[in-house]
Amino acid sequence: MLSSPARHNRSIDWVTVLLYFILVGAGWSCIYAASYSPDMAANPLVSLGTDQLMGFNWFKQLIWIGTAALLIIVLLVVDYKAFDTLAYGLYGGMILLLVFTMFVARPIAGSRSWLELGPVRLQPAEFAKFTTALAASRFMAGINLRYQNWRDQLVLAGITLLPPLLIVASNESGQALVFAALLLAYFREGMSPLILLLMAAAGAILLLALLVPKLWLVGVFTLVLIVVVAVNRRILRHHFPLAIGVWVVVIGMVIGVDFFYNKVLQPHQRQRIEVLLNPSADPLGKGWNVTQSKIAIGSGGALGKGFLQGTQTKFDFVPEQSTDFIFCTVGEEFGWAGSITVIGLYLILLWRILHVAERQKSVFGRTYGYCVASILFFHITVNMGMTMGLAPVVGIPLPFFSYGGSSLWSFTILLFSLLAIDAHRKQDLVR
Known about the structure:
Elements: H1 5-8, H2 14-35, H3 44-47, H4 50-53, H5 57-77, H6 82-85, H7 87-104, E1 115-117, E2 120-122, H8 124-140, H9 150-169, H10 173-177, H11 182-188, H12 193-211, H13 214-231, H14 233-238, H15 240-264, H16 267-277, H17 288-299, H18 326-358, H19 363-387, H20 405-423
Antiparallel strand pairs: 1-2
InterPro entries: Cell_cycle_FtsW-rel_CS, FtsW/RodA, RodA/MrdB
Protein name: Cell wall polymerase
Organism: Hymenobacter caeli
């Protein structure tokens, strides 16, 4: 069912649209710069044939950008109520697709997460973020949803956790981590901050268990329990079973971290954690990627070496320079000034998305807007963090910058679905 774009084109948030195209254009320029060679023809689009051009990421990205533009048109003319009405159906279809991918996809770098359709490869995990955000938003917009009701919380947890569990089963842990960002949107809609604190505490305990001797940690947590009970006798009288339960869970995490680290994580995933904890331990081996990434960014100085003048990325010192490490090209060729400009554009985009979310009349629209902002925020911070050695290298793209059709399409669908809903914000959604 189509809506009438003529009536609502003035309601489209053109500031956000402009930011999108600026970021996509800047990203394409960096992809071109990362694959540029002085031996390249002056005008490759004219002098090279299609078969030759298809060997360049920058040319293939042009095709993805063109198809993304068509997606934008479709998203803006489709009836805005479809996003709410079809939320559960799209989510269910994506779950089936993830299961299908797990069994039929050809292993690539140990991961079964890519579907090959002739010359085109698509990663369903990228699009699962969109369908999960839709389904969670519709559920939270339900009339009977009560955040104090544990059944509602379990259903929401199931909606959120099922896709990343399937993604992890396909050995694609990086994309699975992104779903944790949705907790930020849930917090905005009334989820208890205690859940966020518990997750942060769990992460800190697991990190400590990797760095500190286990027996020492067990002793410290046991001593903490004894001191807390001794100081507050009310806990001993009324909440002692709960306190013991928490202690058992914490000790279980401390003791079980070795099993998870050695038996569950893949060798390359363990290497990423080791590099994060001690990046200088093996700079020519496991730490090569991050070491070269930081050299590339630092070598740009204040204003950079100039467009197409980078050396670290040109001569393949930096791995995956068109995808996971595309931000290195920004730092090397445009320096701190260019890096700060890109970060500033992302901050403006995130602020704009939150502004759009807050002006929605429906809970569904507002929640979905916060889901979009949370997913983009996670991608931006983790991707930039891993290029600077501040986060583990988990292989997630930089929105609108990194090469890849699946990532560009998924981010485009996320953003313009929100803008399509926002364009009709003066009308009531179903929920």
